Amino acid sequence: MTILSPVADRLSKLAIELPSWAFGNSGTRFRVFPQRGVPRNPFEKVADAAQVHKHTGLAPTVALHIPWDRVEDYGALAKHAEENGVTLGTINSNTFQDEDYKLGSVTHSDDRIRQKAIDHHFECIDIMDQTGSRDLKIWLADGTNYPGQDDMRARQDRLADSLEKIYARLGGDQRMVLEYKFFEPAFYHTDVPDWGTSYAQVTALGPKAMVCLDTGHHAPGTNIEFIVMQLLRLGKLGAFDFNSRFYADDDLIVGAADPFQLFRILVEVIRGGGYAGPGTVFMLDQCHNIEDKIPGQIRSVLNVQEMTARALLVDRDALSAAQAVGDVLTANTILMDAFQTDVRPALAEWRASRGLPEDPMRAYADSGYAAGIVADRVGGTQAGWGA
Question: What pTM does this model have?
């Protein structure tokens, strides 16, 4: 505990929202792979998510995806979450799995289809009213595959008009967070391809509209921590979707591909005031295609915790002093010393001091929960993409 003692209080403020869809079946473009014991409804998804929080103390909220998580009684779902030790969080819209949206949703040239997409977001806001959720997160698959397919500027105008209507529906304490992605499923151009486009759109809307940064939604070699810094500097970084990618949007366990990148991002989050405050939500956005889902989420939140601890250990005063005199090597060494600190034994002690398992992965494996859901969840339709 000696290593973490100076930052223990700040470390205890870490909270990571889990995505309900991470507990359903998922896969590649070519196949969705089923697993035994996968949830069949949102209530079972929430119960599985609660296991992650039970064993780590890091994941107190669960994000929902509409229509994947539609239920008749959202009050009952919220109560179920509380009974399991968690609460409901961000509501995510879906305008990428309906036949009408093949050529776009909120950017579509057809007034009827565009209104249909707007109405879906109105439904999401109505659900937020019932769940007590603050944030509506929007990711759009809208774009084109070929030059000349559509008028890119007109699509931006239609996007702005649609978002304005959705924004006007938000309650006083609710927010919109607009995600971006540079390609896929559209390959020639995407209507919200980068942080600048998202920033321009949300800034035009007002203070309740923010940018969501998905760590997998960038071209290889992109300096993501620079984007983090800039959005925090501009007061517009509303949320993270944490995951990893080797080549494109691989949605792998956060920190799996490049732990040093995750560290660098968290250094800038802490530097910019985006850590453990109400303004920037940490959330996972991952698909566990071949690994078990609950352990995959446990591993993910532990990876974020470990890199957060290392980032908190950066000697800011020494770093600023070295930067001020242009001491390049000392400044880099200070950063690398924090990154290379093995905080895992101290984190195990830190968890034990708070009544949590020293080894959450082992504790979950020994709990018998996995065998229980395999035995209990027989029959019905497993949750997954489109289900």
Answer: 0.96
